[in-house]
Amino acid sequence: MAVIDVGGRVRQGEELDVQAITEWLIQNGNNVESPVEVTQYSGGASNWTYRLKYANADLILRRPPQGTKAKSAHDMAREYHVQKALAGYYPVVPEMVALCQDESVIGCDFYVMKRIEGIIPRAKMPPELQLTESDIRTLCINMIDKLIELHQVPYTGTELEKLGKGEGYCRRQVEGWDNRYEKAKTINVPSFKYVRNWLNENIPSDSKTCVIHNDWRFDNLILDPENPTEVIGVLDWEMATLGDPLMDLGSALAYWVEDTDNAIFKATRRQPTNLKGMFTRKEVVDYYLEKTGLQPENWTFYEVFGVFRLAVIAQQIYYRYYHKQTNNPAFKDFWVIIHALHIRALKLIGSQKLEANEIAQKYILKFKEIMPK
């Protein structure tokens, strides 16, 4: 296994018109020189990502997929401008090269950025790295610290202030993802009725407002090849906005598969979170809350929301496959994952109720002890 991820063969039906792209780049002041080698990255399930290795430039192109698109999803211009605005405050964003909104070039918007050479930590870490348990723990901490660093980026009075509406984020997210699931449902997935009602009934006030990534995962990070516990790049900014940082954390945990999770989650694991030295989900939360000083009244809400949100994302992708808008075989069994996420959300809600009952019983026993006979 190669340590540096360079992409692979372009998937059938997802080919690029490289000549048109090259001509457009040159017309827009980017003097790229042929020949060009094109590969495609397999990690993403949403936007399509390609490497364009010219004789004198190493670039990455991002474009939306074909087929039905959610109204606010796959916005290439927004993703481009987010990273451009973040560059002065958060140095691990890639350097933007050019944005194309002329659909006559390849039939859709796309943008090009400079490639950051490094290691993308996917489901299996390259064995050549020979990371120890201590190294893995350091990597885990650095990953969470980079999220905390993002949540501290000053946005007031900058272009970043235009990213989102800010206050009321939790409510808007619950209502928005609820509507998205309703529109993307197919006959072979659960309704999530109880989970959706529970989320609507337990919406907290926002803990604070900050820049959030909204898709925080190990496979959206780039690690330093010389020091693979250090994060040198952060990718996939299409869902970045202004919002509650605890929603960002809760959504990140939905992807966090532990060694004790069931077979379905283990089979769909996309990050090396099962390795010895990695935090458990609880340890991630404890570390983040201790370092930021945030004290949520009901953490379970954020975790349940993250699970439901991931189910909606997976269902939107499966919807395209179900309706033959994509033939990517990786999406064929996504409906099974939706069921597994439904069960996980129900268990989280049930655990919270059980914990609340146990606490109540302890208080009742204590009260009986101190009451006069």
From TrEMBL:
It holds the Pfam family APH. Residues 37-270 form the Aminoglycoside phosphotransferase domain. It comes from the Bacteria. InterPro entries: ACAD10-like, ACAD10_11_N, Aminoglycoside_PTrfase, Kinase-like_dom_sf. This is Phosphotransferase family protein. It comes from Acinetobacter pecorum.
